[in-house]
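[audit] Reproducing an earlier prediction to check determinism. Same input, same settings, fresh worker. If the tokens differ from the archived copy the diff job will pick it up downstream; this log only records the rerun itself.
[audit] input (285 residues):
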Amino acid sequence: VGVPLLFAIPALYPWFDAANPAHGYLNTPFFIARWVVYWMVWIGIEVSLRRARGIEQSGNVEEASRRFRRVASAGLPLLAVTMTFAAFDWMMSLTPDWQSSIYGVYWFAGGMVAAFALLAVLVRLIGAPLPEPSPDDVHALGKLMLTFILFWVYIGFSQYIVIWSGDLPREVAWYARRGSGGWALVAGLLIFGSFVFPFLLLLIRSVKRSASMLALIGAALLALHCIDSFWIVMPGLVPVRWWTVVVTAASLGLLSVAAVAPMRLRRRALPARTLPPNHLRGQPG
């Protein structure tokens, strides 16, 4: 969702050539300005984390832990706000006649679930020369994953119940389109696959303390997060055909390979090293 989005504005967004944009918010110059701000914040967070990572690789684990905590405490609120407004701009404005104040929070919550799911997968995927995480570290990751699954489903249910209670045709149409035909099956898959099954599994202590089990759950949650994004965006964009599914799946596959392969190569080039216990929580060994 980088530079190509800017070139696709005329084709994607109905408000592009509207005579009266919504309160001056949905217009191309302001849209691009917000796009720049979002990416500046995200790149700034990424650069700060890389610098903290460099301190950790130099051997100063305690200072790196302090730096990670400072970046996280400042970066997480900024990430939440920018992701919320990016969801409004890039996704919700595909149907500008429909609005929901919870929409951006829903997208942020789903993104956090996917982030922890990806971390669980990477713990098992990258492997040596990084040390095996301790059961306590894995347990902490499992609890965070469970917490944000509950947060995600709570926000999604809150949005649904408010729109259902109001029963306004302009608002209900968004769910009516995504709750009929094949999209209803996708919605059911998301409820059971993204909430019911992982929730029940992560209630089990032994599952939360198993890196292998968390990796399996994380892989499933990542796939379902992509399906959730598809369910949110595609009904308001273009009719779904077989080729749209194939192109989407192929693009995600290529991006996954492009992201993971360099990481594995860099890890293999690093010498094996031992980190003090509980380093993920910033405690000295």
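[audit] rerun output stored. Observation attached for the diff report: Residues 272-285 have pLDDT under 50 and may be disordered.
[audit] end
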